[in-house]
Amino acid sequence: MNQANELPFALFPGSQGQAVRAQAIARAGSLAGALEQGLLPRQLDLSLSEALVLGLLKQGVSKYLAIFGHGSTDLGEVLRNYTEAGVTQVYNFRNEVEMAHAGTALAWAWKEPCAVVTSIGPGALQAMAGSLAAACNGVGLYHIYGDETTWGEGYNMQQIPKPQQQLYGQMTALMGQSYVLHTPEALRDALRRGTQCVHHPVKPGPFFLLLPINTQPQVIHDLHLDALPEALQAPRTAVADGALLQQAAQLLSGHARIVMKVGGGGRAFAGPLRELAERCGAAVVLSPGSTGVLPDAHAQNMHVGGSKGSISGNHAMQHATLLLAIGTRAVCQSDCSGIGYPLVEQVININADIADLTHYNRTLALQGDIGAVVEQLLAALGTVADQRAPARAAWLEGCAASKAAWKGFLRERQAVPPLFDQVWQRPVLTEPAAIKLVCDFANKVGAIKFFDAGDVQANGFQTVEDDAPGQTYTETGASYMGFATCAVTAAGMASTQQYPIAFTGDGSFMMNPQALISAVEHGARGTIVVFDNRRMAAISSLQHAQYGHDFRTNDGVAVDYVQLAGSVQGVLALWGGEDAASLRDALKRAHAHDGLSLVHVPVYAGEKPEGGLGAYGSWNVGNWCDDVQQRYLSTVI
Questions:
Q1: Which domains are delineated in the chain?
Q2: How high does pLDDT run on average in the chain?
Q3: For the segment 38-76, what is each residue's pLDDT rounded down to a tens digit?
Q4: What single string gives the DSSP state of each residue in 387-440?
Q5: Residue 165 dihedral angles phi and psi, to the nearest 5°
Q6: Are 538 and 476 in contact (CB under 8 A)?
Q7: N or C: fewer beta carbons within 10 Å in the chain?
């Protein structure tokens, strides 16, 4: 069919027109190319579903993770035509929570824009629950759900049975930004608000598009494709008030005991933050989401701090007099429920979000892009004399001694031989020893490490020895059980290849075991390591610490994870053994497999302290609340 014959068909809003338009875009290599070459007219009659696909294409979204249902059949037909032409890619899943996690990982670790598509009702609610991981970790992606019809002809199946409009839209608006496309012609506004959320320069997050069943096939007449907004490109912002920068520089030069707390917002600025830390002599304390901002062995890297934390990280927090907070939102576990800095007299906060910027009292707020503001602050420091150099050297010496104690403690705990476990009725590896071994293997083969919630996650962020951001992704924002297992699937959808290893507990793995099927279906190559202690060990240990007993955090049902995973065709399932040599061998075999592997490792759970890495901070939970809250009342900042 030549170009002259194609254009009339391209005007048809139906399935035949969709196929022709998709082929034109594929031939040109892009939507913009098809318009420039005259393969597509700029003004068209399009269904809402197709207009949405073209609008998202303008924003760089061509990958869809989907579970279709009666609430999304029209959108599914559009995606069929565009996928058959090679313009879009659609990956089908079995569970909406699993799918939401995989989309989050694809956007977060591989930096690829994508959209999650579900039907109406339970599927949408499950996907929305899974979106909590994206919302809590600042990951932008689209969530597209079916919705009840707009004519109010009676209850729709799977509609919330309540006589009120747009209830799904109201719920999703609580999770992030939301838009109900009650009127198809509002698509332009919806996509503008969408990109402002998904591509937000400071706090991106999930954007929820609700597509009523009956508006999806409705035709938008004379839609100008140039009117559909492109992806947001926000400019960097800096501090306009030079006096504030000079004041900050004076504070940094006047304090000897400075702690720099780097949150997840600092991940993209490792180089400038290292220079700033070295210039002002700060002890750097990381959050679980910012490991690697300073190389592990850097003398000023005190590792993680907070309610779990580390000996060295919490030492720096507890003894500093000046807090330099960068890209952190002061999560309860990260700052010990507000009492992590008992001696701090003044705060300098660098953040673009006004709420996070002003979280603490006595704050000198430097609002703007972290990289731009740090550049300004470095310039200001060059104009100020260092008033406390000798005292600062003593501060860093003390911190170095604390770090040496932490490193020695880690080596000691990671070298603990297998301990006898009451459940396994034989000696098995401790979790710190097993996690350290898998971390070392991951670093050796250049794998991304994904950590699941629970004891594995806590021992994990205490263990990792990253030298750059992006080596580890630990979903501490929501601590959503099952995230790591699902994240591996994203490796099969990503355009760039990097091997993932998921660190997951037995409880977390069983939240989304169907991810095994999805990972094989989509060609993911990676390893899932299941650290099996037959209990919710993080909660058991908390119960013991607070009340002296654990309660209902385990069961008596044994699961053969090797047999379970091996029943999925394409999965190499391996027993990790009960000693270091066996686990190393299993990891090598898993990595050599051209596909998905699972390694099952029994680990110790009990009251022996050498079986874990301990806790070093405070937390406003359980019977600790009175003490923590009383201390909070007397905390200055």
A1: 3-227 (3.40.50.970), 242-398 (3.40.50.1220), 423-605 (3.40.50.970)
A2: 94
A3: 999 999 999 999 999 999 999 999 999 999 999 999 999
A4: S-HHHHHHHHHHHHHHHHHHHHHHHHHHTPPPEEETTTTEEEB-HHHHHHHHHH
A5: -80, 145
A6: no
A7: N
